[in-house]
Automatic annotation (TrEMBL):
Keyword Hydrolase assigned: yes
Keywords of this entry: Hydrolase
An example molecular function term from Gene Ontology annotations: hydrolase activity
Species this chain originates from: Paenibacillus chibensis
Protein's UniProt name: HAD-IIB family hydrolase
Taxonomy, superkingdom: Bacteria
Keyword field contains Hydrolase: yes
Length: 249
């Protein structure tokens, strides 16, 4: 069976490396012959620091589907069309917004150093923090600290983009149109109803919709109607759930 895991808020908490209990449970799944896939809003660059080294070659979907990697190589990347990118940058400029803008590997960042999202961005210095003009292509844009959130959402709604709101972090996460986690899984050769998905947020809806079984961690009103099961956001309860699924067919 294929098991697909979101990271933050699902098996990874407060941006820290995976808990030992979670690692042992994932290793047990692999021991029983199951395939493990990680699917995150993080770019591939930022998945690696929270995972143990022996999991770095596992299949990964990053940037909510904009990046796909397998065996330590990025095999697919989707970026904003230049016209759309320029319109988003115009919104950023007119509202004087701060941002995290990801290329396939390097990134541009103008937010506060103490912003909650900053600690998860390239903590091991695998990439380069570069001026925006140096990014050849843009795969994801995160808007930070917005004083006029509704106005900005209205302006973005006129563009061919996918927007996820993360109210707990006060950010808007923007991806190219047609990009979501299910889209990334398809590029890995994953078929509908051939996997069990674990997630906790609205950006997990697409992969829940196509899963054989979907397990929501914690509570999210938009995700709940797509979940077949729910587990509290407790690492030991999650690990116990995974261990119980090791012998699933």
């Amino acid at each position: 069976m294929n098991f697909v895991f979101d990271l933050d808020g699902t098996i990874c908490f407060q941006g820290k490396v995976l808990n030992n209990a979670i690692i042992e449970a994932l290793d047990a799944l692999a021991h029983y012959g199951h395939n493990i896939i990680f699917a995150s809003a993080r770019p591939i660059r930022d998945l690696l620091p929270v995972l143990p080294t022996h999991m770095h070659a596992y299949p990964m979907v990053g940037g909510n589907g904009a990046l796909v990697a397998n065996d330590k190589h990025i095999i697919s990347k989707v970026h904003f069309k230049e016209e759309v990118r320029n319109k988003i940058l115009s919104i950023i400029q007119s509202h004087r917004l701060t941002y995290l803008i990801d290329g396939p590997w390097d990134y541009a960042y103008t937010g506060r150093e103490d912003h909650p999202i900053r600690r998860n961005v390239d903590p091991e210095k695998r990439a380069n923090l570069v001026p925006l003009a140096s990014l050849r292509s843009t795969i994801k844009i995160v808007l930070l600290d917005m004083p006029d959130r509704k106005i900005i959402l209205d302006e973005l709604s006129m563009l061919p983009v996918v927007v996820h709101e993360h109210g707990d972090e006060g950010i808007l996460d923007i991806s190219p149109q047609g990009i979501d986690k299910w889209n990334g899984l398809v590029k890995l050769g994953i078929q509908e109803r051939s996997y069990i998905a674990f997630g906790n947020d609205a950006n997990d809806i697409s992969m829940f919709q196509h899963a054989l079984m979907s397990v929501m961690i914690g509570n999210h009103k938009d995700l709940a109607c797509f979940a077949t099961e729910r587990v509290d956001a407790d690492e030991h309860l999650i690990a116990k759930k995974l261990m119980a699924m090791c012998k699933i067919g």
